[in-house]
Design goal:
Length: 230
């Protein structure tokens, strides 16, 4: 799904303004949205998904002002786990309990190494385990547009690589557009086709990870990359 953002502004009590003149995101690519805390990454995702409305400007999806019903999935930074089993939580993302839905759910859990927890109560999981289940629930939907807000912030390095592999496989298999916010340039370099650097609510630079990270054109980008610690 193609996403086009034009002349978007969003102000919060004069303390922060998101101001994006134009941003086009092509179908079937993975985009890494990077920047320091407070740069506007989460706000941008919330505006795209429709959880918040811009003060001005518009966002279109395949030239339509509303995304096709049922074709967008969004993973929040702190996803809620219902007090059901792990499988039942993932089934909430597939739409039902038919055998086909169960296969989708089990396939997603297997991709992130959580299949052995299928019957465990979600309330007994650690924070990192619960986040992996939330990722499985989001990607099991097989939507055309997937937005992930810091999806691996609370999980270990091994699990991070599992999740990254799942995201890349999902993108390739379903030609989905994936928009992923991250504070981790290394992660963006591993999985993103293109990175978008945000600073104080504005987009200051974009391009392939290789070109942006090796030869940043903006001083703010250089500062962000220099201050990054793995």
């Amino acid at each position: 799904m193609k996403v086009l953002i034009k002349d978007i502004k969003k102000t919060y009590s004069d303390r922060f303004t998101l101001d994006i003149k134009e941003l086009e995101l092509a179908e079937g690519r993975i985009y890494g949205i990077l920047g320091p805390n407070g740069a506007g990454k989460t706000t941008l995702l919330r505006l795209i998904i429709g959880l918040e409305k811009p003060d001005s400007g518009e966002i279109s999806f395949d030239s339509e002002l509303e995304a096709p019903c049922g074709e967008v999935a969004f993973l929040l930074q702190n996803s809620y786990m219902f007090d059901f089993s792990v499988l039942e939580n993932v089934l909430l993302g597939t739409g039902g309990k038919a055998s086909a839905d169960k296969k989708l759910a089990m396939d997603a859990l297997r991709e992130i190494g959580m299949e052995k927890y299928v019957n465990a109560r979600a309330s007994t999981l650690s924070g990192g385990e619960a986040q992996k289940v939330a990722i499985a629930r989001t990607l099991a939907r097989k939507r055309q547009l997937v937005l992930l807000d810091e999806p691996t912030a609370s999980i270990d390095i091994y699990s991070m690589r599992q999740v990254e592999g799942f995201i890349k496989k999902f993108n390739k298999n379903y030609n989905a557009t994936v928009i992923l916010s991250t504070h981790n340039p290394s992660q963006a370099a591993r999985i993103a086709d293109e990175v978008v650097i945000m600073w104080n609510g504005r987009i200051i630079e974009r391009g392939s990870p290789e070109s942006v990270f090796s030869s940043p054109s903006r001083e703010e980008t250089k500062q962000f990359l220099e201050n990054w610690r793995i």
